[in-house]
Amino acid sequence: MRRKTAAPPPPLPQRQGVDPVRVRLPISDEWATVGEYLVARLSGAAPGVVAGMLDSGLVVGVDGHAVHARTPYVPGLYLWFHRDLPPEVPVPFPLDVVYRDSHIVVADKPHFLATTPRGSHVTETALARLRRELGIPTLGAAHRLDRLTAGLVLFTVRPEERGAYQTLFSERRVRKEYEAIAPYDPALALPRTVRSRILKERGVPAAREVEGPVNAETLVELIDARGELGRYRLTPHTGQTHQLRVHMSALGVPILGDPLYPVVTGPVPDGDFRRPLQLLARRLEFTDPVTGVEHRLRSGRTLRAWESYEEWAGRELR
Fold first, then answer.
1. Is 0.85 topped by the overall pTM?
2. Statement: residue 208 has pLDDT above 90
3. Among 151, 171, 203, 270, which has the highest number of CB atoms less than 10 A from its own CB?
């Protein structure tokens, strides 16, 4: 079996905390030149954009030298370039660091801030912001939170150690505890463990429960009730996309401010910060795989609906 070799380091620096795009030319005889391949690969770009990048020397090889449109196509060749970074609506909430050492950074992410660059959210992400603010260009995310979910996220400082921390999550050796505000149903027997199979299809905003072997498990507990609202502790034992949101909706108590469950109402527009999803990653507990330190970390954030009961109960439950 051929051993997979690591990609060479990027010859271009980051911009605004964002890495350059890396492309490796696949094994193929379909293209004669680098220009032909990139035009086909980046077909979503406006006409002339790719040719302009090549003409301007903005696409480089492993040595940092410009690669041109007529450069012969060589399978396995690495290329790098920076994509245009259009203006993004700033997320006007602080990104607090709750723990930092020479190996990891744990941040307390606000609602509406994506964890890592994806889609239209690139510079306004927790990763890019932390790289800029802390001056750590090597910072990487060990896991993700949904853009609409607030709370604790673990980042790694050293790329060579990132796999060890990611393994903590894949092997379920991190205790994650969430808090949510949702309708209170006195007839709902809690605590209970919800088990189901969740399917998230690419290009479909909402996940759904389907028949088949269980792949999602969540312990749901009621912490407190205030009129028509309940405050819940959610402990996931698996990590399916939107798992907590799907399970709360399936119980008949969908999380307040959720634009997808139980009904898809459309994406939250950038710049609309009025109705944050009332879901918070409250605790992270794990044994550091590098240092052996026992970490028990807690978010300092609060959920607005619990603090402003009258406003949220009147708006969300009727």
1. yes
2. yes
3. 151
